[in-house]
Amino acid sequence: MPAQQKKLIFCTAGLLSLACALGAAAAVGTQLWVRGSILCSTGALLVNASGPELHKFIGHIQYGLFSGQRVRQCGLGGRPFHFSFFPDLLRIIPASIHVSVILFCTVLIVFALVGAGFFMLNAFGSPYETLQGPMGLYLWSFISCEC
């Protein structure tokens, strides 16, 4: 394979791996994992709402891994309510779900960054000399300590 083509392929793969790491990091922090609609049934039943009037009684909920927002619509306008999972919903939703999602997203980010590093090493360096010399000793020692 020509040198330019090798550099192009490895650089493209490294950039995609870096984009994967950034996407996973952004997904952990976003508040838009789940969206839903909430019907205020008592208010809709009181006024016998149907058709276009029913839209005044439909609220929204959206939440992510750490926090969320609920907007209740009971005919008098929206009332937003912000909540966070760890102090507010820890009694209802088990913490093991959140911890496992955080752990696996962290592992995904680390592996994607390590993969991007190896792709860039293959593109711009000589991996055989790097992995066999003193830098290789430091690299393999670091990898074995992490595992």
TrEMBL record:
Pfam families in the cross-refs: Clarin-2
UniProt record, GO biological process: equilibrioception; sensory perception of sound
Bilayer topology annotation: Multi-pass membrane protein
GO cellular component annotations of the record: membrane
Record carries keyword Iron: no
Keywords: Membrane, Signal, Transmembrane, Transmembrane helix
Chain segments annotated as transmembrane: 97-121
Superkingdom of the organism of origin: Eukaryota
Compartments in which it is found: Membrane
Annotated signal peptide: 1-26
Family from the record: Belongs to the clarin family.
Name of this protein: CLRN1 protein
The organism of origin for this protein: Acrocephalus arundinaceus
Native organism taxonomy: Eukaryota, Metazoa, Chordata, Craniata, Vertebrata
